[in-house]
Amino acid sequence: MTRATRPFFRIDAKTLARRLLGQRLVRLLDDGTRLAGVIVETEAYVGVRDRASHAFQGRRTPRNDAMYHQPGTAYVYFTYGMHWCFNVVCGEPDEPAAVLVRALQPTEGLDAIRRLRRRPLPDHLLCSGPARLCQAFAIDRRLNTIDLASDHRLWIERTPTPIGRVRTSPRIGVDRAGPWAKKPLRWYLQGNPHVSARPR
DNA sequence: ATGACGATTTACT
DNA sequence: GTAAATCGTCATA
C-alpha cells in the first residue's frame, strides 16, 4: 500500500490516464469508514489546445482554477445541476491538464458505498460513471483543490495488481469538440463489468 | 440581470 | 431508443 506521490502526477495526461488504470482510489470518510476501488476507466484532457477541456485556449475561471494548480491536485466540478465529477490534475504547474476518473471497481466499504448510492443497484453499477463514482465515494465541492499526494481524505495507492488488457476509445460526452471528439483519449480495462457505457 | 449550456444519470415509451 | 431532471457557471449586456 504505497501512496502515489508528486512525481507520479508530474506527467502528461495521456500517460497518467493509462497509468491510473489498476491503481486504487482510497477515500476516508469523516466517520472513519474507508472506501476503496480499482480505477478501471479514465479520460485524458490534455491541455489548452484540447477543445473538449474546460481549460481550452487557456480559459481560467473560478470553477476550473484547480486545473492550474500543482500536479496531484483534485479537480472536482459540478455539472448538469446535480452531478459531481472528479479529475486528477497532472503535467507541469500552470499548464492545465487533467485525467477524469470515469469508473471504479469498488473493493472496500461496499456497504457504505451502497448506502451513499440511494437506490439498490447491482455492484457493477455502483461506480460505473464519473458522477456515480463521486456519489459512491462522497466526493463533492469540499474535495476540490485538495492535494492527493498529502490529503488524508482522498488519495491514490499504487498497486502491483495485474490489470489485464487495456483498450482506448474516443471520450464520452464531448461530441461538440470537433476533431478532438474523435481522438482516442479514453482508457479502460477490456471486459471489466464496472466500465461505464460504450462510446457513441 | 439574463439566458444558454453542461466531461451525466435515470426513468420511461 | 428518447427525454426529463436540475442549477451552478459563464458569456453577454
Describe this entry's structure for a reader.
The protein is α+β, with helices and mostly antiparallel strands. It has 4 helices and 9 strands; from the N terminus they run βααβββββααβββ. Strands 1, 2, 3, 4, 5, 6, 7, 8 and 9 form a 9-stranded antiparallel beta sheet that branches. A hairpin with a 3-residue loop joins β4 and β5. The longest helix is centred in the first third of the chain and has 8 residues. The radius of gyration is 15 Å and the shape is globular. The protein binds a DNA duplex (13 and 13 nucleotides) through β4, β5 and α4.
At a glance:
The chain has four helices and nine strands.
Portion in strands: 25-35%
What's the count of strands? 9
User: Judging from the principal axes of the Cα atoms, what is the shape?
Assistant: globular
The largest sheet is: 9 strands, antiparallel
Give the rounded overall mean pLDDT: 96
Distance between the termini: 37 Å
Q: Which regions have little confidence, pLDDT < 50, spanning 5+ residues?
A: none
Structural class: alpha+beta
Task: Figure out the total of helices.
Answer: 4
Rg computed from alpha carbons, rounded to a whole number of angstroms: 15 Å
Level of helix content? 10-25%
Reading the helices and strands in chain order gives EHHEEEEEHHEEE
